[in-house]
Amino acid sequence: MFENLSNKLARAIKTLKGQGKITEINVASTIKEIRRALVNADVNYKVAKEVTDNIKTKALGRDVLIAVSPGQLLTKIVSEELATLMGSEKVAINITGNPAIILMAGLQGSGKTTFSGKLALHFKNQGQTVLLAACDIYRPAAIEQLKVVGTQIGVEVYAEPESKNALQIAQQAIEYAKAKHKKIVIVDTAGRLAIDEAMMQEIAGWKKTLQPAETLFVVDAMTGQDAVNTAKAFDEQLDFDGVVLTKLDGDARGGAALSIRTVVDKPIKFISTGEKMDAIDVFHPDRMAKRILGMGDVISFVERAEQLYDEQEARKLSKKIHKNQFDLNDFLSQIQKVKKMGNVKDLVSMLPGLGKTLKDTDIDDDMLQSFEVIIQSMTPHERANPAVLNGRRRKRIALGSGSSIQDVNNLITHFSKLRNMVKKTGEMKKLMNLAGLSR
Fold this sequence. Notes:
With about 450 residues, this protein is an alpha/beta fold. The chain is about 55% helix and about 10% strand. Helix 10 links the parallel strand 6 and strand 7. The longest helix is centred in the C-terminal third of the chain and has 21 residues, at about 405-425.
């Protein structure tokens, strides 16, 4: 997520020279590089200039504290300004009403239908009863897609495949939700290939008739500055309540996330970072700013981990790490939990310094799947005692798992790196302490 922007900002801040105080001279080139990095990330030039001017104003003349370098101080200032640019604080979604109606809007291809399912699962996991309303009658197979999503997450979908009146379907879905005591109705509307007057009038009419508690505009973050322009056009007609950024796990340059709050003056409420149905996060501007600057987002990581770890299990793992007894059984268990937590690269970006540590290590979800199969092809003795994995055993494991000896060696190399890193830094124990899982 925002890898290019993160790397360019890190290089810009690293060039800051001088000790004791940030001055006009030693900060000039750094500010210039930060502005260039933002513009290259597709941030509106006026917005980029305003942000860097603010950074420069706040940085000039600031005394550098003992044990804090000028670069570290500037990183803190940049983080604060990026957070302010993106809205400073999270804005909660409104789910008042009986039922609460959430109207989804956006262009075709933005990921609106898939995100409707993700949002439904998000509320379901909070103990809410949810109904998905399939109201996209224009796109072929849209209704079936939502039904598949609903089945996948265990959420009921209301549909009237033969009806040609989408608004009427939505109204019937709301009445059905009332009868079935559903707390939330998520209305998946039709998208278009481009902005047009008919589309705008239709969706504006829906909002006026349905009176939703929340209207969300879903936008593909990979479209960069076009995402901001589309959001602005929609907002002028629809006056939506919040923005959803999808496909942030792709090659997005980041400009949409950084600019959209300032240009449209509407909060980003959710982000979507992968294809899995649980790949959804509430948007926290301050946390996102830290992740962009490589400072990590331990709070979000811990929030995800808390859903998977119980206290007894965490204590047991902590003791094994402390005694240097972390083995392949533990590694397998962690792989299975990480897969449930979301996209691997997204998780790595949440941990301070880990992204840089593993930048030359190609770890992705497919590799974790491969690791899982290889470990499951080992004997219990081999999992508990990785040191016994000689050439003959590795060859047998490769044949048994349908992989190559090189794949098995790759697994052992990654396992050794992880065990050494955990032993050396104690990061896992610190994260557990932050989560209140270890004492």
